[in-house]
Design goal:
Order of helices and strands: HHEEEEHHEHEHHEHEHEEEEEEEEEEEEE
Number of strands: 21
Strand order of the largest sheet: 2-13-12-9-10
Strand content: 25-35%
Low-confidence stretches: 1-61
Distance between the termini: 68 Å
Number of helices: 9
Mean pLDDT: 87
Largest sheet: 5 strands, mixed
Structural class: alpha/beta
Length: 452
Amino acid sequence: MNLNWNRCPEQSATPAHPPYGLKLHRCTSFALRRPWIRRLLVLGLLAMLAGATGARSQPAAAADDLLPCGFSINAGAAWAKREAVTVGDGGKSPFFRPGVVVWDGGSILGGSVVPAAQFRPPAQALRLVPHPVTSIASISSGATIARMLAEASIEVDAHYSAKADASVCVVMAGSGDFVSGHDVDRVYAMLRRYCLERKAAGFRVVVVTLLPRTRPAGFEEKRLAFNELVRSGWSEFADGLADVAADPRIGDTGDNMDRQYYYVDQVHPTAAGCAVMGTVIAPALNDLAWQSSDCVIRLRTVPGDWSPWRPYAARRSWLLGEGDGIKTVEAEYRMTTGAATAVADSIRLDTVGPRTKALRRATVRRGRTATLCYRVDDPAPGSKTATASILIRRQSGTIVKRIRLGKRATGRNLAARFVCQLPRGNYRFDVDARDAAGNRRTLAGSARLTVY
């Protein structure tokens, strides 16, 4: 089992309703950095939870079969200022890791001519894929299948991971071969060989059809014949087909002369053309078998009721429940054919902002050091520090100076000093602050500042 105890309260704290009477004693960063101490805390807490709630719906999976889980609240933040949070593991579940997608082909698949990477086909497609993945580009301008075959063991196969949600190779090959004058049957046979070798290495393979091209002479006839062979036979050597050539915006003969979707070279798609490619490739990726498709998860804020089992998602919204203090969210993961395993994370909910005070009036001679006395109080379960600043205003309310103080202790009388170069006259200084959770002060202290 996995329990993420990656917070260290800044002071001794006992929640208003500690789970099952568990008292959270003061801990130190030094202690929690020791994995064996954290492991003991994990086992102890889970044992208490199991004793209080009875047996799980299924026996826990063996620890040796599990991966370290990245489950956290608000991406590992120590504080939350709202009941609504985001929980999840970002793809690092107890059963699998984020998927791996390798893109192998030439400059058209890589979108190399498009200036910004986020508008190229890989990014455009993955934006529509609801799985966290690591994207790897093996792109060479004018790539031939012979070259791709020679380099695949290093450029593609080395990235395979049995722990990945899915290991996928997206291949778009043939254009470079037809430019070099190779015939259709040879190119198709080499594509088939390439795909079968990647499948033997463990990958799921998605084949992308070829886009139109005006030059060299004879290219278009070969492309059309090749694409028909791919459409009729892809299931014999691949797991998916992304038929970009069937899209009427970019795939028909002559579409490459449309300046909306193709650059002036009449070969490379523009960002708009790449977006079309992405909308065709994404469904082929989504239709593959992903481990996460067989995973379900349920949540609860301890000691509350469990949510229904839902399909796995790397991130999802969750309500911590009313009442400030330490909140622990527990998640149970279960594969379709396996046992359940539990993980948890804790966060301190603080929905109330600090209060500030200006302790006394201040008087200073122009050119001398002014001392502004103030205090910041943060109601329970408030933090021991707050980010403070002082705003000096004219009587009209216009801000004439801002003093950023950074993190300062709460619950203490403090002083801010600065060399006053303000014109002579009467001003007011306001004390502003944000607590560790990000709440801005609810009551602002203010006092007069006289410069003479």
